[in-house]
Specification:
With 191 residues, the protein is an alpha+beta fold. It has a domain of 94 residues: Aminopeptidase (3-Layer(aba) Sandwich), CATH 3.40.630. The protein contains 5 helices and 9 strands, in the order βαββαβββαβαβαβ. The chain has a 7-stranded mixed beta sheet with strand order 1-4-5-6-7-9-8. A two-stranded antiparallel sheet has the order 2-3. InterPro entries: Acyl_CoA_acyltransferase, GNAT_dom, NAT_camello-type.
Length: 191
């Protein structure tokens, strides 16, 4: 396997990687308590009565955005021969000296084979070499496997948006979890 910069990400390449999605037997339950003196937001891992399944495909707008971001220098592909087996589409955010991961995907046939870890490691090396201070991403409270993976890669939860997707996210939907890997630091709590 080799990892190299990519300068485009097409609909055909998206299809080559397969469907986006995940299944989970748990989620991070999010609760909020607020009064005049204090606001507390808590996330707690809880088992689900039935598995949660999510499948999606990127929209044409998403793919158009990725095609604009890919040539900026922080997007990488993992290849076996000429076959794309994993991708990270990321963009430098100059005003706060960070890199934002827009899309991260490994072909289902190659998951749990360290492809994703190698993509993240290479992105960290690239960012560090360019003086970037941190890498940011967004995932969902229902995507427990992704949160565990990112923690193993040195990311930590740094933010939660209770209405990122809809106005009812906390009640019956997905809650946005924002994670960050500070360059030069590895999160110690979950290694």
């Amino acid at each position: 396997m080799r990892i190299k910069p990519i300068h485009r990400f097409t609909d055909e390449e998206q299809h080559e990687l397969g469907e986006c999605g995940y299944s989970s037997n748990a989620k991070y339950k999010v609760t909020k308590i607020e009064n005049e003196e204090r606001t507390t937001i808590d996330i707690q891992l809880v088992e689900l009565e039935a598995p949660y399944h999510k499948e999606y495909t990127d929209s044409e707008d998403d793919l158009e955005l990725y095609s604009k971001i890919a040539p900026m220098g922080y997007s990488l592909g993992a290849y076996i021969g000429t076959r794309l087996i994993g991708v990270v589409i990321a963009e430098e955010i100059k005003w706060n000296n960070t890199v934002l991961i827009w899309h991260f995907q490994v072909s289902e046939d190659y998951r749990r084979m360290h492809v994703g870890k190698q993509l993240i490691d290479e992105l960290v090396r690239l960012a560090e070499g360019n003086g970037i201070r941190a890498i940011n991403l967004e995932t969902q409270n229902t995507n427990v496997n992704a949160i565990r993976f990112y923690r193993k890669c040195g990311f930590e939860i740094e933010g939660i948006d209770l209405s990122y997707y809809t106005n009812d996210d906390v009640v019956d939907g997905e809650v946005a979890i924002f994670m960050k890997r500070k360059i030069g630091q590895i999160g110690q709590a979950f290694k």
